[in-house]
Amino acid sequence: xxxVFNDLTHRLESLEPRADAPxxxxxxxxxxxxxxxxxxxxxxxxxxxxxxxIEFRGHRVLLARNYTDIDDKIIRRAQERGMAWxxxxxxYIGEFERDMAxxxxxxxxxxxxxxxxxxxxxxxxxxxxxxGHAYVVDGDVxxxxxxxxxxxxxxxxxxxxxxxxxxxxxxxxxxxxxDFALWKASKPGExxxxxxxxxxxxxxxxxxxxxxxxxxxxxxxxxxxxxxLTFPHHENEIAQxxxxxxxxxxxxxxxxxxxxxxxxKMGKSLGNxxxxxxxxxxxxxxxxxxxxxxxxxxxxxxxxxxGLRAAGxxxxxxxxxxARYRARLGPVTTGVEARIVEVxxxxxxxxxxxxxxxxxxxxxxxxxxxxxxxxxADAEAAGHLVAELDRLGEVLGLDLAEPVVSQDLEDLExxxxxxxxxxxxxxxxxxxxxEALVSRRAAAKAAREWAVADGIRLALRDLGISLMDxxxxxxxxxxxxxxxxxx
Length: 487
Fold this sequence. Notes:
The chain is of the alpha/beta class. It has helices at about 40-55, 70-80, 85-100, 120-130, 160-165, 205-215, 230-245, 275-285, 285-295, 305-325, 335-350, 355-375, 375-380, 380-395, 415-420, 430-445, 450-460; strands at about 5, 10-15, 25, 60-65, 135, 140-145, 180-185, 200, 220-225, 250-255, 260, 265, 300, 465-470, 475-480, 485.
């Protein structure tokens, strides 16, 4: 049974599809005024996993991901560059889609743009005015927060606490400090659309409500976005949608954790941003995606060179080992069939528990030990287990048949094979191989060959051997059933 953590109820819930209907899913998309950063990568890889896994479990997903292509930031950036705002937005939509394709994020079924839905927004706003939930002031239109008693349910805050901590525009014309703009009267030199309240443009929050209603209906199944959107953006979406329709806006709310740099959220406004384009060029798209999957989507992941290098080494080891067994497609044995069933069960158990990719990745590395332990007819049928791992890798958006060129450990293969063949490290060949690998790793660290050092540590970990660096340069090792010390 697939369970998701619903941020609206703050608990794990079974994902219950509606009868004879696809699961509708809306992903808050980017404001397209600059290149995406790694935080965007984590966000959209997270929801790509949700999309892929729900369909893997046999349910059709109807996925929409919007573009905010009119916004104060877009207008300012276009003015800085001396170009038309719509040309700037179009440019960065193309750049964003290029980055998503590199990360193997599946394209959504629908990519609505804010500028294409201004009439829908105007109709939505007029409906709120007619129902007493919005008011007009000098060509601006504000939502009256106090008319929606459930405001704050998603973030778990009271109106009083939100007033104290919220970043809201100071505007004496508001009836209540948390009232937010649905429509903004035009300013000189800015793009504008005609409306019943005069020329202007929509506020940011209204666009998602209008696009969801038009394309996915009054109630959608899953609404996702970054954790920073919980308040005020998603609170505002709920209020302005439910006040118009009288129906629940979304059944499940999901938010991904941040990418941090030294424990501080990564973002353009903070000046600590690494563009996704640069990160992909430095480490490779496969390694970046793998790095993002090593942490549960709701948790923070700290950006570091060491972490990304280690991820590349781990993925490289996984890909290299599977390649060695992939062509062994002899008759399927009961031993291999049993291991396939074990892998399937462990993988689905991990992913069924709120899409736990960290645990799912561990299943692949456990499978490497299973491959190394196969003997006789089982070893000749090992390719069938690899085929299943390839299939499950696709669910995570990983191509496990694609070489990870940057992590080359060819010269260490004989030593790793010797260790893999020994179940207790009793043989002199296995012990000598382990000592040689530990020495090689020490030399790599001294030479700052981090990819090799990380690759050796992770390759040994895949074989059930943990290395622990001690003060003074000594390295200890430990296995599940035996432990030793190498000086």
